[in-house]
Design brief:
It comes from Megasphaera hexanoica. InterPro entries: NUDIX_hydrolase-like_dom_sf (IPR015797), NUDIX_hydrolase_CS (IPR020084), NUDIX_hydrolase_dom (IPR000086). The chain is α+β, with helices and mostly antiparallel strands and 157 residues long. It is 22% helix and 33% strand. Strands 1, 2, 3, 4, 5, 6 and 7 form a seven-stranded mixed β-sheet that branches.
């Protein structure tokens, strides 16, 4: 019997943060210069659950405190070093719009559903949004629905 290959697996979180009907997107400050748009988030620490991790990551990357509303979907990505990340995407709200970016991002926007459609998303995030289409649409968070619909994910009209 062949020895099973070891896969390095990590856990991650992302947050779709809403304020006044707009969604927060961050532009990645990546070494390749692609600067895809994404949601704040990152890896879990050993002593954290998903909710603790998403609150910490959002605070570190944006300076915002959030109230988690629901689980929106899942996220997965294989890094160049071979590590595979699996994660949870949450919907959340905040009462502030002033963002303090960390070194991980170079820009941010609060976008309407129409503006979200123009954001160049990382392929892994786009696939996650596509999978959300397969979920029961009626059960999706009311804040999330317009952003998925206009991004071409749900309800091609």
């Amino acid at each position: 019997m062949a020895q099973e290959e070891r896969v390095h697996m990590g856990l991650s979180v992302k947050a779709m943060i809403f304020h006044a009907g707009r969604l927060l997107v961050l532009q990645k400050n990546d070494s390749e210069g692609l600067h895809h748009w994404e949601f704040p988030g990152g890896g879990l620490r050993r002593d954290e659950d998903f909710a603790m991790a998403v609150r910490r990551e959002v605070m570190e990357e944006t300076g915002l405190s959030i109230q988690i509303l629901a689980t929106a979907g899942t996220w997965s990505y294989q890094k160049k070093d071979g590590q595979f990340l699996n994660g949870v995407i949450f919907t959340a709200v905040t009462d502030k719009e002033d963002v303090r970016l960390s070194h991980e991002h170079c820009d941010y926007r609060w976008v309407t559903p129409e503006e979200f459609r123009t954001c160049e998303l990382h392929g892994s995030l786009r696939r996650s949004l596509d999978r959300m289409q397969e979920a029961d649409y009626e059960r999706q968070d009311f804040l999330l629905q317009p952003f998925l619909r206009l991004h071409g994910v749900i309800g091609h009209e």
